[in-house]
Amino acid sequence: MALMREALLWEGAGEGRVRCRLCAHRCLIPPGGRGVCGVRENRGGILYSLVYGRIVSQALDPIEKKPLYHFLPGSLALSVATVGCNLRCDFCQNHVISQYPRENPGSVPGERVSPEAVVRAAEEAGAPVISYTYTEPTVFFETCLAIGTLARARGIRNVFVTNGYMTPEALGEARGWLDGANVDLKAFSEDFYRRHCGGSLQPVLDTIARMVEAGLWVEVTTLVIPGRNDSEEELRWIAQFLAGLSPDLPWHLSRFVPAYRVQDLPPTPLATLRRAQAIGLEAGLRYVYLGNVPGEGEDTACPSCGRVVIRRYGFRVLEHALAEGRCPGCGEAIAGVWA
Q1: Helical pair 141-153 and 115-125, crossing angle rounded to 10 deg
Q2: Which residues contact 289 (CB under 8 A, 6 or more apart)?
Q3: Domain extent listing, the chain
Q4: Is 198 exposed, middle or buried (CB count within 10 Å of its CB: 0-12, 13-18, 19+)?
Q5: Angstrom distance (rounded) from CA 244 to CA 227
Q6: Distances from the Cα of 204 to the Cαs of 3, 25, 87, 168, 268, in angstroms?
Q7: Fewer CB within 10 Å of terminal CB in the chain, N or C?
């Protein structure tokens, strides 16, 4: 397998420069330069992916770990990643691989694995889903496309765990093989995204809306960070935005723990998460979950009669009572991908 592959979604920009159209940065890259992600390089006026087929992490995970609670619950997902990310969140929990190209210039690690080998590994493990996760799938999109189209042909579904910082063109390339996504909506503030992530809020909001409109199954995660994005006002803005797209859109509220360059803040108080959950429900969302606090706020309840239809602890499904996607008590349809 070649160590590099010509990238998707780029165009010449004169004087040997290229414009990448894969993510919302739309980097203008000079000859010999790399994009913000650190894994797309201009060589001789052609943009190349440096991570095509270079898998740095591959593992079997419960689908609940993504987290996806309404997408084939209780199933296994074969998770794959390369190094690199188009954001630089100072609280990243996977910074060792996501920020590797920035912190180790010139080095691109990863085992060379063919798309066929990835799909075969999923089949052998009995995993009905392949998840592109751990880092940012947008920056290894060529790998996702190669694996995803083959997986779809074999009856295996594909999901992104993504920061949502992609262009409409990239999402268009994913139609036909991408089935679902969990999108990190890190805050509802341009200042937060600029200061702590090296990006902007609006492209993420646009991606979530486009994914919902395209018919993908979408769930959203917000890491609730004390003193940064945990005000009731900001949480309400997020909840209202999501409810405006669909009241059936699940919202995961995850507990922050110190990580990477943010070691001076405490873990999120459970009371803050419970209040955030209440805000989500008040805004009209039917499914609001707590994360990183096993035993709290993990169950799926029927929005009509209140019966618990999926009971969880951590990443384990303890009880799955849905009958063809409906509550066994009142017959209410529970939104999700169940078959």
Answers
A1: 50
A2: 67, 69, 250, 251, 252, 253, 277, 297, 298
A3: 5-49, 54-298, 299-339
A4: middle
A5: 26
A6: 31, 12, 12, 11, 24
A7: C
Predicted confidence at residue 221, as pLDDT, reads 98
Do 143 and 82 touch, CB atoms closer than 8 A?
yes
pLDDT score of 291: 97
Whole-model pTM over 0.70: yes
Cis preceding linkage at 101, omega within 30: no
Residue 26's H or E segment, with its range, is none
Task: Report residue 190 as tokens.
Answer: 């341009």
Largest CA distance in the chain: 67
Domain 54-298 sits in CATH at: 3.20.20.70
Among the listed residues 82, 231, 219, 90, the one whose alpha carbon sits nearest the alpha carbon of residue 164: 219
